[in-house]
Amino acid sequence: MSALPGGAAEAVPLRAVDVASTRDRLLAAARSVVEEHGYGGASVAAISVAAGVANGTLYRHFGSKAELFVEVFRDVCGREVDAMRAAVEQVGQDGRPDPVERVLAPLDVFARRALQNRTLAWALLAEPVDALVDEVRLEYRRTYRDLLVGLLADAVDAGALPPQDAGLTAAALVGAVGEALVGPVSPRAEPASGTDDSLLSGLRDVCRRATGAPPRGPDRLPQGDGDRR
Amino acid sequence: MSALPGGAAEAVPLRAVDVASTRDRLLAAARSVVEEHGYGGASVAAISVAAGVANGTLYRHFGSKAELFVEVFRDVCGREVDAMRAAVEQVGQDGRPDPVERVLAPLDVFARRALQNRTLAWALLAEPVDALVDEVRLEYRRTYRDLLVGLLADAVDAGALPPQDAGLTAAALVGAVGEALVGPVSPRAEPASGTDDSLLSGLRDVCRRATGAPPRGPDRLPQGDGDRR
DNA sequence: CCACCATGTGAACCGCGATTCACCATGAGC
DNA sequence: GCTCATGGTGAATCGCGGTTCACATGGTGG
Prior knowledge:
Two copies of one chain form a homodimer.
Chain A: H1 19-37, H2 44-51, H3 58-61, H4 65-93, H5 99-116, H6 118-125, H7 131-157, H8 166-185, H9 196-211
Helix pairs in contact in A: 1-2, 1-4, 1-6, 4-5, 4-7, 5-6, 5-7, 5-8, 5-9, 6-8, 7-8, 8-9
The structure holds a DNA duplex.
């Protein structure tokens, strides 16, 4: 960035860029910085640079850094929820709306997307953030949970799952997936546990069991069939 | 300096034993501050006040704040592990070493202790901490996991659980318990879900299911003990 | 009795990163 | 053309909290 005094027009063509879009550029820049360096690396300076604006410009559009990130997190979390909801719909599509599958599908999508964008997932799940932003996180965790609670209740009503405290199971599921992901997702994860695919399928197994669903196919304990370790 | 509520921090014996080195007082003070205000509230100033020493004294005994907390976390986490191990031993004690119970017992203790000291649990589980301290946390998470992995493998070998990826199940269990606790444990939790006892028993159910253990009672488990809190 | 070391003191220092502010462009309306 | 209003700039400011340092103090050995 050349620091010519008074040369405001040179960094980015001003007219080409809609005035309203600086705000959007900041939002996009913030998201992109978080995706790359996590919330910890998302200083005001870094965001400004990424957006191609000056430090202070941020404050023309947002009351504070935290406010900016509240919007970013809302946006990103919203996408996650949408994707999870879409996955649930998808299940009914192929003609056989297995109620257990409707519980597992969004979890699978959640995990899959997290693995695809680990730094972002880390920021969304566990990274230290502003108190204000943290509330958004909590808010969305609740949303995830509520989504699952509904699906679990449906499955129980349909007789596909044993009666249970759906709220607790939902929380446990979110936690199980979250924890199993936090390892691989956090900085410098060892690939000790194997590929992402094996992680995903293993996770699906644990989740299925946690809901109390009978093992695939026969409703009997798989006794003595091959063991893997 | 008057930032701390005077009464609370005084729990630490101030001048009982001079010889009981200042170092120990600092460690105790640090732990006590974390227990009360979390790591976030554990500034050097707060700790010094709680220990009844000056700001700089801390640096006569520890290279940095982080080093102090490495020791504190090691200590606290060690207690947790000890308690969990003891719980496992306890199971064998009454003559009936149910392998599934040996998996659930430490989880139960973990949850129970967390609920008893929520702020501390929060700090241990999820609160943002120094990188150095974070490594200790990771180290102990792994310890928890390894403990469970061993017990799970035993149970599988004994035929009490279906074959499974023990490492993944262990991570999921820790995560499930953690998440289910983080809600109640984090600032301003609503008691919406009921009492701690119901939480604990529900948690036990989910965990049992997640391991793939057959539902309570029906099968061949030695006795029909009606309830066990 | 004095030098000395260990330990304690707390005000000053410092780096970091969010926030502010005095000052410019530019476009719209008069 | 002149004047606001809007949006942009980036160096200065500020608050926070960890760390340092010049200065006690008190017990010990020479």
